[in-house]
Design a protein that fits this description.
binds manganese (II) ion; binds ligand BES; binds zinc ion; alpha/beta; Leucine Aminopeptidase, subunit E, domain 1; elongated; six-stranded mixed beta sheet; Aminopeptidase; nine-stranded mixed beta sheet
Length: 486
């Protein structure tokens, strides 16, 4: 997609060179400022009840006399927030999606001038609307013919608006990469595929990459990761990606992504219904790759490390069994009471591995628990951190990126459930509070650096007719990383 900005006044939009015009309108919009053709149409539509300034309301008009663009969409924003602006764009783009428009001009008739955030939101909304999964369905129709999107803004704000657009484009590319990886089925998106994808990314953007194989992981002593991987015919991969945007002496941020390319549950096998969705269990890994994609394009002055333990969780004659005890890289022993609680097992070894980078902060991202979906549904990701400052930072990043999370507790009382008679800890606690005990398990491996955990089990993909990966939380993570660049 070719994104541009164009200095244009509202009254001149009707003459603008584009075959579709999307106008965001709302309280405070002056129909007169739009010129006669657009102004009269808007006033009439409002008066006759065909449009209202409510979220999601929009109106498509074709061949409006006096307007050069043959398609005009009015999209209502329910307020001045970025979230309301996005909702208007999503609704407006929905009306244009199936049609023939090739060049879309987007303008805001809200009282405040267009800003960088709105530009960023536009690139994200367009990216989301136009993404189509094709890899194993090449017959999927294109959702639109759009080739070019131009955002109208005033001359005074054009520089900051352009920055916002660039940020939005980079994040959208990261989101698209994460969606594509996660949407690919388990027989395509294997641990080896994730490693290849990471290598491609490294090559294209000059990142450092190292991929450890089973022998190397054995030598390191990642007993928990190995235990999960041992039931699968697919070779495990431990991916280490590095982006250097600051001096070597600057402590890096580390992102750790759960890369279970398929989670059957192992010997503690899952029920058949909806098990196909466990191909999305590498959503954390996908979000790390997507964030690297965005960061590599934006080049902030930070150092960033990405760690992805990738394997399948399969039942087989060689699979780990309930009651087996293994030794983690940290030296702590773990009784694997439920082989379906595998995410924390691959993450704990990666979290210990992270120590060698002497990180400024470590954030892990994982489709970790069904319990988190019960707690928060599909809107907010679960966020856990013993560090108030880091928690506040992630909360702000999520809000700013419209990719929200919600802080959950980590009281030591929740640790009780992890006790084992046969090892330093079990890998599961009681059913109640399952998202929290999972986080408490991870916490035992993170004493050496500021740490946060994002449980994205509810936010990484959608079920039902719109089944597919969302690319979250790439926007939150990118915002967080950019924020650290100052
Ligand atoms: N990948 C799942 C978590 C999951 C389940 C995410 C359903 C989204 C929807 C994870 O590996 C898992 O199986 N967790 C178990 C943990 C339990 C055995 C303590 C769960 O949530 O049921
Ligand atoms: Mn599982
Ligand atoms: Zn899992």
């Amino acid at each position: 997609m070719d994104f541009k900005i164009q200095a244009a006044e509202l009254k001149d939009l009707r003459h603008a060179e584009a075959d579709a015009l999307l106008l965001v309108v709302g309280e405070g919009t002056s129909p007169e400022a739009l010129g006669k053709a657009l102004g009269t149409a808007l006033t009439g539509a409002l008066k006759e009840g065909d449009l209202a300034y409510k979220a999601g309301r929009c109106l498509y008009l074709h061949g409006l006399p006096g307007v050069k663009a043959s398609r005009v969409v009015f999209a209502a924003a329910s307020g001045a927030s970025a979230k309301a602006f996005r909702a208007a764009l999503v609704a407006g783009l929905g009306l244009l999606k199936g049609g023939g428009a090739r060049h879309l001009l987007v303008a805001s008739a809200l009282p405040q001038p267009v800003d960088a955030t709105q530009a960023e939101v536009l690139a994200g909304a367009v990216g989301d609307a136009l993404y189509v999964y094709r890899h194993t369905k090449p017959s999927a129709p294109a959702v639109s013919k759009l080739l070019r999107v131009t955002l109208a803004c005033g001359t005074a704000e054009s520089a900051t608006v352009r920055d916002g657009l660039h940020r939005g484009e980079a994040v959208a590319a990261g989101v698209a990469l994460a969606r594509e990886c996660a949407n690919r089925p388990g027989n395509h998106c294997t641990p080896s595929y994730l490693a290849d994808e990471a290598r491609r990314l490294a090559k294209a953007h000059d990142l450092e990459i190292e991929v450890l194989n089973r022998k190397e992981v054995e030598k390191l002593g990642m007993g928990c990761f190995l235990a999960v991987a041992q039931g699968s015919e697919q070779p495990l991969k431990f991916i280490v990606l590095q982006y250097r945007g600051a001096a070597k002496t600057v402590a890096p941020l580390v992102l750790v992504g759960k890369g279970i390319t398929f989670d059957t549950g192992g010997i503690s096998i899952k029920p058949a219904a909806e098990m196909d969705e466990m191909k999305f269990d590498m959503g954390g890994a996908a979000s790390v790759l997507g964030t690297f994609r965005a960061v590599a394009q934006l080049k902030p002055k930070v150092n960033l490390v990405g760690l992805i333990p990738a394997c399948e969780n399969m039942p087989s004659g060689s699979a780990v069994k309930p009651g087996d005890v293994v030794t983690s890289l940290s030296g702590q022993t773990v009784e694997i009471l439920n082989t379906d609680a595998e995410g924390r097992l691959i993450l704990c070894d990666a979290l210990t591995y992270a120590e060698r980078f002497k990180p400024a902060a470590v954030v892990d991202i994982a489709t970790l628990t069904g319990a988190c979906v019960v707690a928060l549904g599909h809107h907010r990701s679960g966020m856990f951190s013993p560090d108030d400052a880091l928690a506040a930072e992630l909360d702000r990043a999520g809000q700013a990126a419209l990719d929200p999370c919600w802080r959950m507790p980590l009281d030591e009382e929740y640790d009780e459930g992890l006790k084992s008679n046969f090892a330093d800890m079990g890998n599961v606690g009681p059913r109640a509070g399952g998202a929290i005990t999972a986080a408490m398990f991870l916490k035992r491996y993170t004493a050496k650096y500021p740490w946060a955990h994002l449980d994205i089990a509810g936010s990484a993909w959608k079920s039902g007719p719109a089944k597919g990966a969302t690319g979250r939380p790439v926007p939150l993570l990118t915002q967080f990383v950019l924020g650290r660049a100052g």
